[in-house]
Every structure is written in C-alpha cells, then in structure tokens.
Amino acid sequence: MANGTTQAMIIVLKTSATEQQVADVVRRIEEAGLRPHLSRGEFRTIIGAIGDETRMQPDRFVGLPGVDNVTPIMKPYKLASREFHAANTCIEIMGRKVGGTALTVIAGPCAVESREQLFETARIVKKAGATMLRGGAYKPRTSPYSFQGLGSEGLQYLKEVREEFGLPIVTEVMDTRDVEAIAAVADVLQIGARNTQNYRLLTEVGQARKPVLLKRGPAVTVKELLMAAEYIMAEGNHDVILCERGVRTFDDSVRNMPDLAAVANLKIESHLPVVFDPSHGTGRRDLVAPLSMAAVAVGADGLLIEVHPHPEDALSDGPQSLHPEEFYELMTRLKPLAELVGRGM
Ligand code: PEP
Ligand code: MN
C-alpha cells in the first residue's frame, strides 16, 4: 500500500548558529509534534524533522534565528534518503567500517551445516582477508522438505566461531520470535529477500540495536527497498546495509538477474552502505567473480559471497558457492580494482 501521509523537512542552520539557537529549533520541532534528527557536520548543523504531514509547516521555521533555509523532502523515504543525510553512512562493526572507503567482503557458507564445516570456512575466508563471516542457522527454503538450517545449534556454532576467529557474524533472522536469540550472537542481522517487506520483522530488528543487512526481494523495487529500510530506521536503528541480490526476469540462464543499476542508483538515492551479492544474484559459481568485479566498479561498498569448503557436498546453494581456491583468487583480483576506485581491502 502506498503511504502519502508522513512527511519530512530539513532545516539547515547558519554556520554562525549558536547552541541556544539549535536547541530552540529542536524545541519548536518537538512542540509541533514532530521528531527532530540532529546531524552535525564539520561546518553546519542540519536538523531533520519527521512526522505527520498535517503537522509539517516549513514556514514556521523559515527566518528563525540561526536558520539558513528550510527544504521539504518530497521523497517517500526520509531517513534513508540522501536528501536527509548528505554524507555516506559508515557503520562500524567490531572495528571494521562498512560504507567508508574500505571494500567490505562478507563471506561464508549459505548455511551452517556443522561445527567443522563452519570452522573450516571461517579459517579459509579469514586467511583470504574477508571482513565478516556469514552463515545461516535459520534458512528460508523454497521447499519445506529441504534442509531448514540447524537453528539454535547453528547459533551456538556461530557464537563459538566468532570467539575463535574474531570475525563479525552475519546471519539471517526470519521470524520476530527469534530476533532476541539471534541478536545475542550476531553482529549483523540479515533480512532475507523473502522478508524485505515483512514489516513486523523490520520493526522488530529496528528495535534490536544491531546493524541490519537488508536484502532486496526478487520483485521489490528500489523505492520499496528504501521504504523497507525506512521501517527499520523509523525505530531508531540507522545502521542499515542495503543488499542487491538479483531480481526475477524472463531469463532462466541465471537464477536471478543482478541489477547493477540498482547498486549505482541506491548510492545516489541513499546515504546507506550498499553491498552486492553475486552468489544469489546469479546462482552460478562461474559468474560470481565477473559480477563481483562489476559491482565494485559501479560503486558497491561491499560484496556478500558464498564460500564452502566442499561445495559439491553443500546442503544448500552448492552450485553458486565458491571453492576455497576460487575465493582466494577472487580476493587477489579484487584488490587492484578496489584501489582503482579508491577503496582499500
Ligand atoms: C542467503 O543469503 O543465503 C539467502 C537465503 O539469500 P536471499 O535471501 O537473497 O535469497
Ligand atoms: Mn544461500
């Protein structure tokens, strides 16, 4: 359903604005029944005001002491928009920065299958220089008869592997009832493509105070993805990483059609970090490397890549999972390209 009732505006303060003037503007925003969001730049302070459109009266702020200009935000997404927050959002996770100048590489198996498989993969991806380790304990499978993940046993292995290797953990949450238990172990909560528009789940992870990796569903538009991010951010959790993982089209030569235009477009429309998933994006191991390179070239802040010590034995997504040596090679090839586009690895 479309939403046309919530609105926002940004109030740019003069460089000479005093602390008292900033506080007065914030107070007036609150008195108007709106929510203020203060962002202090190097030179200027910008205050966003968000809330119901019936309460949104930009004229009441024009000409106030310390106020330079007032601009209504016309986009349906506010907190997620570049208009609201001009600088790139950089999220720090165990000392690693996502959305800054470094290229983030999230790697690991599709599913946690056993303690041995997870530890072996962690050793491989850490050695290759990955930033974070991924692996699903709860798996969204098309068939109810397919492997559904190890559940709480998988979470326990993720906890142990995190302690052993010191890599931040990215793992999927499918159900509001599991958010607390998963957030106790994970450093990043993944919302899978099947749940991009599960609004109750988005609200719940918005309250979890852990960074969220939000995947774009196969039939979700860029605008709808940003509205989904808005749901998380509206709960006060601004640490959202957007993930493009391919959309549905007529062509069955790939599992999904990677939408690299969306990667570049999201970087324009939003300040949030954007990562690309070539594994689900293509479903083909032989396409993971070329699409990874392309995504970095169009401005992705990072990649999410499935790696398995023995892909032929994988319980899910084996055909798209890289062998260890393929992952090492890809990481080696990515380095000079990352540097070319101004990113370190
Ligand atoms: C996954 O990351 O393993 C996964 C299930 O991805 P998606 O939600 O993009 O299909
Ligand atoms: Mn998978």
What structural class do the secondary elements suggest?
Answer: alpha/beta
Number of helical regions: 10
- CATH domain class name of the largest domain: Alpha Beta
What's the number of domains? Answer: 2
- What is the global morphology? elongated
Tell me the series of helices and strands, N- to C-terminal.
Answer: EHEEEEEEHEHEHEHEHEHEHHEH
Largest sheet: 8 strands, parallel, barrel
Provide the list of bound ligands, each named once. Answer: phosphoenolpyruvate, manganese (II) ion
Q: How far apart are the termini?
A: 41 Å
State the total count of DSSP E strands: 14
Radius of gyration: 21 Å
Question: Summary?
Answer:
The chain has 345 residues and is an alpha/beta fold. It has helices at 19-31, 115-128, 152-165, 179-183, 199-206, 222-233, 260-269, 278-282, 285-297, 324-340; strands at 6-13, 35-40, 45-52, 67-73, 91-93, 96-98, 104-108, 132-134, 169-172, 188-191, 212-215, 240-244, 274-276, 302-306.
